[in-house]
Write a structure and sequence with these properties.
165 residues; 4 strands; alpha+beta
Amino acid sequence: MGYGQEQSRLTLTLVYNPGGAYLPPDQARLEADYRRELAGRYGIRFTRLFTLTNIPIARSIARFGSILLSRGEFDDYMGLLKSAMCPTNLDSLMCRSLISIDWRGRAYDCDFNQMLGLPVATGNRQEIYLTDLSAVDLEDQPVVVADHCYGCAAEQGSGCGAELS
């Protein structure tokens, strides 16, 4: 038995990420299309497909955000994400139940906040480290948010929780 076969324990997960400044299509519909096309054309079977929304990080190290800035499309894409914000996604976002830890042990609500240097902080703005986690109740800590968060909450979301469940 190979990867992605019903009787196999070997899973094959595909990830779809749009190639431009637009939102991904509906995950269930796209998965059905990929199953049909890949099986019909190539005999490929897979376990599941995730769709991701491109997250616009406006920094030189962030490829997608840099491309949008160079094309003058950053503000339009941010507007698209804001208009597509889906409040029902908020409870299932990754930042509500997982944390990211950097090489120094500093805690972040998500990988994007880590990239931007926006660590989890206590009410008095003290940063939280891996060694602090047993003494800190993160459920009482607000999630650090910025404009890039609209990508996770937009329609199907970035996959960081909205559609990955």
